[in-house]
Each structure stands twice: as structure tokens, then as C-alpha cells.
């Protein structure tokens, strides 16, 4: 399982994989 983080960029929420996949 990949751990997804909620990151707010410019008001938008992107799910960024901690493995380095954006």
C-alpha cells in the first residue's frame, strides 16, 4: 500500500505519494 499525503498547493489539494510519485 502506498501512503498518500494531503498537500495544499495554491488552495488545491494534491495527493502525493511519499515514494516520490507526484
Topology of this structure?
Blueprint: E1 4-9, E2 12-17
Antiparallel strand pairs: 1-2
Write structural notes for this entry.
There is one protein chain. The protein is mostly beta strands and 22 residues long. It contains no helices and 2 strands. The chain has a two-stranded antiparallel ribbon. The mean pLDDT is 61.
Q: Would you report the number of β strands?
A: 2
Radius of gyration: 9 Å
Strand order of the largest sheet: 1-2
| Class from secondary-structure proportions | mainly beta
The secondary-structure element order is: EE
| First and last CA, distance | 16 Å
Low-confidence stretches: none
Major sheet summary line: 2 strands, antiparallel
Number of helices: 0
Quick overview of this protein structure:
This is BnaCnng62930D protein. By secondary structure, this protein is an all-beta fold. The protein has no helices and 2 strands.
List the main descriptive attributes of the protein structure presented here.
22 residues; mainly beta; 0% helix
Amino acid at each position: 500500500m502506498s501512503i498518500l499525503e494531503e498537500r495544499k498547493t495554491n488552495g488545491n489539494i494534491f495527493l502525493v505519494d511519499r515514494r516520490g510519485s507526484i
